[in-house]
Design brief:
The complex is a heterotrimer. By secondary structure, chain A is of the alpha/beta class. In chain A, 37% of the residues lie in helices and 28% in strands. In chain A, strands 6-7-8-3-9-10 form a 6-stranded mixed β-sheet, with helices on both faces. In chain A, strands 2-1-4-5 form a 4-stranded antiparallel β-sheet, covered by helices on one side. In chain A, helix 3 crosses helix 4, helix 3 packs parallel to helix 5 and helix 4 runs antiparallel to helix 5. The mean pLDDT of chain A is 88. Chain B folds into 2 domains: 235 residues, no CATH class; 108 residues, abc type-2 transporter like domain (abc type-2 transporter like fold), CATH 3.40.1710.10. In chain B, strand 1, helix 3 and strand 2 form a beta-alpha-beta unit. The N terminus and C terminus of chain B are likely disordered. Chain C has 2 domains: 232 residues, no CATH class; 107 residues, 3-Layer(aba) Sandwich (abc type-2 transporter like fold), CATH 3.40.1710. In chain C, strand 1, helix 3 and strand 2 form a beta-alpha-beta unit. About 1% of the residues of chain C have low confidence. The chains are: A alpha/beta, B alpha/beta, C alpha/beta. Chains B and C meet through helix 2, helix 5, strand 4, helix 6 and strand 5 of B and helix 2, strand 4, helix 6, strand 5 and helix 7 of C. Strand 4 of chain B pairs parallel with strand 5 of chain C, so a sheet runs across the interface.
Chain lengths: 316, 401, 375
């Protein structure tokens, strides 16, 4: 293989009249942490399922771990690990029983399973809780157990579908430590997420919206190159009124609201500051802070989506 | 069941639950079709396939006499549509093998000396050996033999009278047989009410038992519990749709029974509606009770099937007469609501009698319905509808919740 | 191979965890067999009858005695007038009524025809038919006896009376216990209901819970998943067979004349068909409710059309043909044969072969249908 774990060309999936995934193409380098970022319903899970040979694509091809997903689905399954969005291990089996079961399924000989069990327990932080029923675990621990079971057979590629959904921030951080560790060992990690902060941890990102890719690259690259014009952060009172006012101004390149702040894109920094301050003051809105900021991934994402909806042009 | 003081009226939460339940049912067309059509479909199948009338039973004749008399006699059997002559045997021991293979249902053994004994006025006996697999075959054989004996006797009487020169012919007995409610003794009239009770019971209990447990298993129960809906309202809301569907299904069955099999409703339709409602409510109650006991859909399904299918089929009096059963089992049959329903069905549909004839059964039906619903509600109120924290080791529920 | 064992172990663990399953799997078949085994009885005896004897002579009493001593009828009440009989029949207190008019005895003595009325409640047409058949036989015998007596009092030259009678023997069942035939049938029914229900939920359950997704993303092959899920039920079914055969033979005292080993082997073959059918249902259903209704849809016709209590030869040709596709039809023949007739494989091989063919067929069909895909 040429350094790519996964190669995808023109993958599409239609369910009747509804197109869930529309002509998606990308490559994933071995050992990287590859992220698929998008809102719920954007098509992330569908893509993962196709790559895991759980769904047949309507058109397009993909090669995962050296095997074609259409022609060698079982070979694909043998070389990957998968963790689904919803907890799909056996709630009425204990932690140890789940691990033993999946170990057996993947054909681990007894000796290897004996060795793998404590390793997985340690990694998941579940030592001492072997006899707990899986459904008795808190959400974060469930996810870690699921990850552990997906890694039992030491696959070269791991697919994680929204692995940290519903998990507290501390556990999330711990989870990502695990993922980083995997990547260091040379395992390719394919993650889908709708958490922007998590997207920052990936080596390579793809932004997906309504089944189409709208942007891609490393997080740093995306932040640096997507939004070329200056971005101002405005903190004021009556944020919603301020939003409505600025929306009507022609010199505003882009505009979005972030809780109690506004992000305003302008042509030139100095000029922009004056215009913003002036306009808001004229309406009697008090501005407490006006700073230039570097674009975050969220800014990038919103920018891309808006560009997409204004001009449906595909990014490759 | 009182309204909350200063709160929402009781049953306010019922309507949205009913609506949701109906929507869910509509979205799962296969299940809905099954619920409506299985009873009708089964009625069709059974109504056409099943009857108790015994005809064309395979017959073997072993004529050890070989006289004209014996040949005439065996011809009487093979000539009728009740029996089909399949084998002629010369050795009585061959009967064994034929019956063992279920190749024949009845073997007629005519002993040596049959003709002589008959002519001499001595006692003559033939043997009809019947495969006990079909109890009806034995009785049909008995009935038919009786008819033959009767006609032989008549024939002799005629001879005697002719010899004596009398022209009048007076057989000793004239038995006039009248059959009420079912003059042609059509099995359909007997079976259709029984089938109705059997099928409805199974369907109602299963679908109700499922509906509550399904929510619990899917986790949507939690969401409902967090709302102001009270357990009682939830239960009523979930069972009403199935009650209505079962009622509709029952009427389809009635209609088909009438159109295709001529099963009438000679009695009061409103009475029929009343007993049907009580019966269905009892089934709902049983289903509800099961749903409070089962934690998973799998278990609720098992319990439902185990408590309805075979018990109703055997113990309701549908096929096996209850009075034949040992007393202990008869007592048990009091627990089967189909038993009472069947009596009322036959009374109303076939006999056209009024409440006086089956008031006892109506009382039992009402009692069953009331008790099953009450017990279910009690259990629900006490334990709530949520998943209990698992206590490995004790197995039984702890006190309170 | 190792993979199948893993799945089997998981299934057993899950079954053991659910407290309610264990008694249901092993206790309920026994309870069912006992309950239903004692209940099934098609022997006709003691049909309740109401009598309206307006004659009240020795002759009428002799006539009635012929009926009530036969064991087939039992006197439940007396009516004073023919119209009063109605109440008994309407209320279900009696299934038949005998009405003997005044002058019965005189008619008989004088050699005149003596009319008698026999009324039957046709709403229970089975009892009515049976009752009427026996009544006919009894009446014929009585009639003949009268003739013989009359003849002996005044014999005609050269003529001999007709003294024809028949002995109706029911084989394999000398005590005339219909239960001996019905209980083995119940055995088959209980087995079928258990195994069919269990497997029809087996795969769908995982589908609905979401765990199936995790299973099919592994290298497990369809046949490994299926075998792994079904073999535990085979084991359970086997234990059930042994349990209920023992109960039937010991507590219910049904004679077991054939080979127990053959019975167990053929029961396993039968289970192949029910497990296969349940599995098939599981693969064509989207959720557990659908699976359950579909299983019921298959199971109810099989119960009634299989030949348990409604003879197949009575059915219209079309339905008779249909029953060839019902596995339990063959199993009923087998089980009755082994229990009561003591027959073995030489006689039963066609049935065994039919079941085997059905089982393998539906099994293969299910495995082929089971795609390791989500949609």
């Amino acid at each position: 293989m040429n350094g790519n774990s996964i190669e995808v060309h023109g993958l599409s999936k239609r369910f009747g009249a509804f197109t869930a995934v529309d002509d998606v193409s990308f490559d994933v380098r071995r050992g990287s942490i590859f992220g698929f970022l998008g809102a719920n319903g954007a098509g992330k899970s569908t893509v993962i399922r196709m790559l895991c040979a759980l769904l047949d694509p309507t058109s397009g091809t993909a090669v995962v771990g050296g095997h074609d997903i259409r022609r060698e689905p079982e070979a694909v399954k043998a070389s990957i690990g998968y963790m689904s969005q919803k907890f799909s291990l056996y709630g009425d089996l204990t932690v140890a029983e789940n691990i033993a079961f999946f170990g057996g399924i993947y054909g681990l000989p007894k000796a290897r399973l004996r060795e793998a069990m404590p390793r997985v327990l340690e990694m998941a932080g579940l030592r001492g809780r072997e006899r707990t029923l899986a459904r008795g675990l808190a959400q974060g621990w469930k996810q870690r157990l699921a990850l552990g079971c997906a890694l039992l057979h030491r696959p070269e590629i791991v697919f994680l579908d929204e692995p940290t959904g519903g998990v507290d921030p501390v556990s999330r951080r711990a989870f990502w430590d695990l993922i980083n560790g995997l990547s260091e060992e040379g395992v390719t990690v394919f993650v889908t997420t709708h958490y922007l902060d998590e997207a920052e941890y990936c080596n390579d990102l793809r932004l997906i919206h309504a089944g189409r890719l709208v942007g891609g690259g490393s997080p740093q690259e995306l932040k640096r190159t997507t939004i070329r014009h200056p971005l101002l952060e405005v903190e004021c009172d009556r944020v919603v009124d301020a939003l409505e006012l600025l929306q009507r101004e022609p010199w505003v390149r882009e505009l979005s609201i972030f809780g109690t702040y506004l992000h305003v894109g302008v042509e030139e920094e100095a000029e922009g500051r004056k215009l913003v301050a002036g306009r808001l003051a004229a309406a009697g809105i008090t501005v407490s802070r006006l700073d230039r900021i570097a674009p975050s991934l969220e800014d990038v994402f919103i920018h891309k989506i808006e560009a997409q909806t204004k001009e449906p042009e595909r990014e490759r | 069941m009182s309204a909350e003081p200063g709160g929402r009226p009781f049953l306010a939460g019922v309507r949205p639950v009913i609506r949701k339940e109906f929507r869910q049912i509509r979205r799962d067309p296969r299940s809905l079709i099954f619920l409506l059509c299985i009873p009708a479909f089964l009625l069709l199948v059974y109504g056409y396939a099943l009857n108790f009338d015994v005809k064309h039973v395979p017959l073997a004749v072993c004529d050890l006499d070989g006289t004209q008399a014996s040949r005439d006699f065996s011809a009487r059997f093979s000539a009728t549509e009740y029996f089909d002559l399949r084998h002629r045997l010369s050795d009585a021991r061959d009967v064994d093998a034929l019956l063992g293979r279920e190749a024949v249902g009845i073997a007629l053994i005519i002993p040596r000396g049959f003709g002589d004994d008959l002519a001499a006025g001595r006692e003559t006996k033939v043997q009809a050996v019947v495969d006990g697999a079909s109890a009806m075959t034995a009785t049909t054989a008995a009935g038919y033999i009786g008819a033959i004996i009767q006609s032989e006797t008549m024939r002799f009487t005629l001879e005697v009278l002719e010899r004596r020169g009398r022209s009048r012919f007076e057989p000793p007995l004239a038995v006039e047989t009248r059959v009420w409610y079912n003059p042609e003794l059509r099995s359909a009239l007997f079976l259709v009410p029984g089938l109705m009770a059997f099928i409805l019971m199974v369907i109602v209990v299963i679908s109700t038992a499922f509906s509550v447990v399904r929510e619990r298993e899917r986790g949507t129960m939690e969401q409902i519990l967090v709302s102001p809906v009270r357990p009682a309202e939830l239960v009523v809301g979930k069972t009403v749709p199935y009650f209505l569907i079962s009622l509709a299904s029952a009427h389809i069955v009635l209609l088909l029974g009438f159109l295709l099999f001529g099963v009438p409703i000679r009695g009061n339709y409103l009475l029929l509606l009343l007993t049907m409602t009580l019966f269905l409510t009892g089934g709902l109650g049983q289903g509800l009770f099961i749903s409070t006991v089962a934690r998973s859909q799998q278990v609720s399904f098992l319990i439902s099937i185990l408590t309805t299918v075979l018990p109703t089929f055997v113990l309701s009096g549908f096929v096996f007469p209850i009075r034949n059963m040992p007393v202990a089992i008869q007592v048990f049959s009091y627990l089967i609501p189909a038993r009472y329903f069947l009596v009322t069905l036959r009374a109303i549909m076939l006999k056209g009698t009024g409440l006086g004839a089956f008031g006892k059964e109506v009382f039992f039906l009402a009692a069953f319905a009331a008790v099953s619903i009450a017990v279910s509600m009690m259990r629900l109120r006490r334990s709530g509808l949520e998943e209990r924290p698992r206590r490995l080791g004790r197995g039984r529920r702890g006190a309170g919740s | 191979m190792r993979q199948i064992l893993s799945v089997i172990r998981k299934e057993f663990l899950q079954l053991r965890r659910d407290r309610r399953m264990l008694p249901m799997l092993f206790i309920s078949p026994i309870v069912q067999l006992l309950l239903l085994g004692y209940a099934v009885d098609l022997d006709v005896r003691e049909i309740p009858a109401v009598v309206c004897d307006l004659d009240r002579t020795a002759a009428s009493r002799a006539f009635l005695a012929a009926y009530f001593h036969s064991g087939y009828f039992i006197e439940k009440g007396r009516a004073d007038a023919p119209g009063a009989v109605d109440r008994f029949l309407d209320d279900g207190l009696a299934s038949v009524a005998f009405v003997i008019p005044r002058g019965f005895g005189d008619d008989l003595a004088a050699g005149r025809t003596a009319p008698v009325q026999l009324i039957a409640d046709g709403s229970e047409s089975q009892s009515a038919t049976v009752g009427l058949n026996y009544a006919s036989l009894i009446a014929a015998r009585f009639s003949q006896r009268v003739m013989v007596e009359a003849f002996e009092r005044a014999p005609a030259a050269g003529l001999r009376p007709v003294r024809l009678d028949a002995e109706v023997r029911v084989w394999y069942n000398p005590e005339l216990r219909s239960r001996n035939f019905l209980v083995p049938g119940i055995l088959g029914l209980v087995l079928m209901v258990m195994t069919l229900m269990l497997t029809s939920m087996a795969v769908v359950r995982e589908k609905e819970m979401g765990t199936l997704e995790q299973l099919i993303v592994t290298p497990l092959r369809p046949r490994e998943i299926i075998l792994g899920k079904l073999l535990p039920f085979v084991a359970i079914g086997l234990i059930d067979v042994i349990l209920i055969v023992s109960v039937a033979a010991s507590l219910l005292r049904v004679p077991l004349r054939g080979s127990v080993l053959l019975l167990i082997v053929l029961a396993l073959v039968f289970m192949l068909t029910t497990l296969g059918l349940g599995l098939f249902v599981s693969t064509i259903s989207r959720n557990q409710q659908q699976a359950m209704l579909t299983a019921v849809f298959f199971m109810l016709p099989m119960i009634l059309l299989g030949g348990f209590v409604f003879p197949i030869e009575n059915m219209p040709r079309f339905f008779q043909a249909v029953t060839y596709a019902i596995p339990i039809r063959y199993f009923f023949t087998i089980i009755r044969g082994i229990f009561l007739k003591g027959v073995g494989l030489p006689e039963l091989w066609p049935e065994a072969a039919a079941m085997l063919a059905f089982g393998l067929g539906i099994f293969t069909l299910s495995v082929l249908r089971f795609r390791k895909k989500l949609e």
